[in-house]
Design a protein that fits this description.
Helices cover 24% and strands 32% of the residues. The strands form five sheets. It has an eight-stranded antiparallel β-sheet, with helices on one face. Strands 14-13-12-11-10-20 form a six-stranded antiparallel β-sheet. Strand 17 and strand 18 form a beta hairpin. It starts with a helix and ends with a helix. This is VWFD domain-containing protein.
Length: 390
């Protein structure tokens, strides 16, 4: 078949575009292959079909909403608002019931899906990063069939682990090493967990339930020179008419029009705080079981300290103590080797207790800080002076 010159040009253009999308960096980071392209040195989501999102991380269709926790930990809520969120504890992202649909011919409702997604943060040297997600999903067909799957994906780049328990709905684990893929060919219903090597994404997908979770693992070696945007995404397809549960404990922040909150609503719960400070208190104080890998026993203790602080002292405490999570060299110094978050959490708790009326925090604070005074500015000096007066 002989092609015209214009057809040859179109084919070559398509090939060049394809190769570029596969391989070219865009201002130092890769675009999401198959979802975005580099335009004027920025990764832009391909519209259609993707109407919103971040071309460096994840793009979404018009029917989808998403909660994202990207590094350096920033929460993008289901209601499309953003704020920094460094909370090295386990959080509930969302708890939802969605229609189970038969993806053969015309979409047909054939039951419901119950989905809970959790996420958690870890530490690499002085940096906190989003390190994984857990999905527990229950499919209840109208004919009485039930299918349960529980999955966890976690770890830094080069050390990601995938575990799961088949035929069990375990929002808080524990996890076995089962194959959690599920296929109902007659209804074109599938649950799949796979690695997208083009985008370095670890994906959990249940299209018939309208749920998709991804992890781009944190590169602990390259640091600021990393070529992927790391983080967790939890996307919900609203065609499946989600009904939300446990809204008051969901840190993905259910949209206001669905019975949830705006970030301003969260801020109003803690007068005198900024949005970022309020979100931190909100996340620390939810009723969430702490069962993540490398769990710290400090998380429930921090929660208790914040909850016991009165409304006058709380904004003072969170303002004067938040520097602890924002000073990487200091965090690295006090924490030592490994990836444990316990020591910075312990210092944060002692700091909060100090400003919330608990006595005798001086020895604890001095003992943790030791000679580590690097890159903290005046905040550490102030804390030591106020916790240990002459």
């Amino acid at each position: 078949v002989k092609m015209s010159r214009s057809m040859v040009f179109l084919v070559l253009s398509a090939l060049i575009t394809y190769v570029t999308a596969q391989s070219q960096l865009c201002s130092g980071k890769y675009c999401i292959v198959g979802q975005a392209q580099c335009i004027n040195d920025t990764c832009v989501c391909n519209n259609p079909p993707y109407t919103h999102g971040d071309g460096y991380f994840n793009c979404y269709r018009k029917s989808q909403i998403a909660a994202e926790i990207l590094n350096d930990p920033v929460l993008n809520t289901l209601g499309n608002e953003s704020a920094s969120l460094t909370v090295p504890c386990r959080i509930l992202v969302v708890n939802t019931k969605q229609e189970l649909k038969r993806y053969v011919g015309k979409l047909t409702n054939i039951g419901f899906c119950y989905v809970q997604v959790h996420s958690f943060q870890s530490r690499s040297r002085g940096k906190f990063y989003v390190s994984g997600y857990e999905v527990a999903i229950k499919l209840e067909y109208v004919n009485g069939t039930v299918k349960n799957v529980s999955s966890i994906v976690f770890g830094p780049q080069g050390g990601v682990q995938e575990n799961g328990t088949d035929n069990a709905f375990l929002p808080d684990g524990p996890y076995a090493n089962d194959n959690v893929d599920y296929t109902d060919a007659a209804n074109n219903v599938r649950i799949t967990r796979y690695y997208d090597s083009n985008n370095d994404q670890y994906v959990f997908e249940a299209d018939a339930c309208g749920i998709r979770a991804t992890l781009v693992p944190y590169d602990t070696v390259s640091g600021l020179n990393r070529v992927r945007v790391p983080g967790v995404s939890v996307a919900i397809n609203c065609i499946h008419h989600p009904k939300y549960f446990d809204i008051a404990n969901s840190v993905g922040i259910v949209p206001k029009h669905s019975g949830g909150y705006t970030l301003q609503d969260i801020q109003s719960l803690y007068p005198g705080t900024t949005v970022e400070q309020a979100l931190s208190v909100f996340a620390f104080t939810r009723n969430t079981t702490q069962t993540q890998p490398y769990v710290s026993t400090e998380c429930p203790l921090v929660k208790s300290s914040l909850l016991s602080c009165d409304s006058t002292n709380l904004p003072v405490a969170v303002k004067k103590c938040e520097f602890i999570f924002k000073s990487p060299k200091f965090v690295d110094c006090i924490s030592g080797a490994g990836s444990s978050t316990s020591i910075p959490l312990q210092l944060y708790r002692a700091c909060v207790d100090n400003y919330c009326g608990a006595s005798n925090q001086c020895a604890t604070i001095q003992g943790i800080v030791g000679t580590c005074t690097v890159n903290t500015g005046p905040q550490l000096t102030t804390l030591l002076a106020e916790a240990c007066p002459p």
